[in-house]
């Protein structure tokens, strides 16, 4: 449920929102092929959206077949094309892509909660930076949950992130480390420990230790953090630690939403003003 891919279909299409787009593929530096949509608007500013993990894809979250997740996460489909539409209408092009092991991107194993997925964030920025239409465009990151974890790992572990002069800003939606998530899911500790030991010994992934928090200080662009104050699946002190560790221009926006993890993801598609205000400030 937490790290096994395969339950994240691409269930939506830009055509349903009257958006001009092209299907794109690009490769991470370890050879993994990623699939996505490039939604076209202006050529001078681009938003790269990285979705949350395991139960999600570039198109968002669908409750069909989710079982326990439907009750604990959200009971309605979440359409990430809603925020893509208002971004496009405001003059932004948008790259929406499936991280490895999600949607229509290449399936190469199990999910690492951002550590390996950082290569996908880097590949997305490289793709836009080399694109003939966008090589001079300002770039903003819209990074959601594991997507922001992957972005944070990228800033900390990928030296090339410092070379993207056009990368201007990031919105970080609900930072969450794996250990807090599983603890707040209410799973018995013997299952949590068994799963963590298996991951460490058999998959070389220490889910209790491979946290992105030590790399927050390496984020080099102005960052807006958005967090539901009633999120039951996180530790708000951890979110505050994330925010306090940022060494760039920063703001934090606390939302007062329903007591569901995905309430903020649903909110994102319905509230353009804070998102557009932030991106407009740094992508002029």
The rough form would be described as globular
* Unreliable residue runs: none
- Category from helices, strands and their pairing: alpha/beta
Strand order of the largest sheet: 1-2-6-3-7-8-9-10
Number of helices: 9
Corresponding CATH architecture? 3-Layer(aba) Sandwich
Order of helices and strands: EEEEHEHEHEHEHHEHEHH
- Report strand %: 15-25%
Task: Walk me through this protein's architecture.
This protein is of the alpha/beta class and 284 residues long. The chain has one domain (14-282): Rossmann fold (3-Layer(aba) Sandwich). Helices cover 31% and strands 19% of the residues. It has nine helices and ten strands. It has helices at 68-72, 81-89, 118-130, 146-157, 178-184, 189-202, 236-245, 263-268, 272-282; strands at 21-27, 33-39, 45-50, 60-61, 78-79, 93-97, 138-144, 167-173, 223-228, 250-255. The strands form two sheets. An eight-stranded mixed sheet has the order 1-2-6-3-7-8-9-10, sandwiched between helices. Strands 4-5 form a two-stranded antiparallel sheet. α4 links the parallel β7 (138-144) and β8 (167-173). α3 (118-130) crosses α4 (146-157). The radius of gyration is 17 Å and the shape is globular. The N and C termini lie far apart (41 Å). The model has no long low-confidence stretch (mean pLDDT 90).
């Amino acid at each position: 449920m937490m790290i096994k891919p395969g339950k994240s279909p691409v269930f939506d299409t830009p055509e349903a929102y009257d958006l001009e787009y092209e299907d794109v593929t690009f490769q991470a530096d370890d050879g993994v092929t990623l699939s996505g949509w490039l939604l076209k608007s202006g050529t001078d500013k681009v938003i790269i959206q990285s979705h949350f993990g395991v139960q999600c894809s570039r198109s968002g979250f669908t409750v069909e077949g989710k079982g326990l997740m439907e009750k604990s996460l959200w009971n309605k489909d979440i359409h990430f094309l809603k925020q893509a539409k208002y971004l496009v209408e405001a003059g932004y092009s948008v790259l929406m892509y499936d991280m490895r092991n999600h949607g229509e991107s290449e399936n190469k194993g199990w999910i690492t909660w951002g550590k390996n997925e950082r290569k996908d964030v880097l590949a997305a920025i490289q793709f836009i930076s080399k694109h003939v239409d966008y090589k001079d465009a300002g770039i903003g990151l819209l990074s959601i949950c594991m997507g922001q974890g992957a972005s944070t790992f990228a800033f900390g572990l990928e030296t090339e992130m410092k070379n993207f002069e056009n990368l201007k800003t990031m919105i970080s939606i609900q930072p969450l480390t794996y250990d807090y998530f599983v603890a707040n899911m209410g799973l018995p500790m013997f299952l949590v420990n068994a799963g963590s030991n298996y991951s460490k010994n058999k998959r070389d992934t220490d889910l209790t230790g491979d946290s992105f928090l030590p790399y927050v200080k390496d984020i080099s662009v102005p960052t807006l953090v958005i967090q539901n104050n009633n999120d039951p699946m996180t530790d708000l002190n951890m979110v505050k630690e994330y925010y306090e560790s940022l060494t760039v221009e920063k703001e934090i926006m606390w939302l007062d939403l329903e007591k569901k993890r995905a309430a903020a993801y649903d909110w994102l598609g319905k509230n353009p003003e804070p998102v557009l205000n932030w991106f407009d400030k740094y992508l002029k």
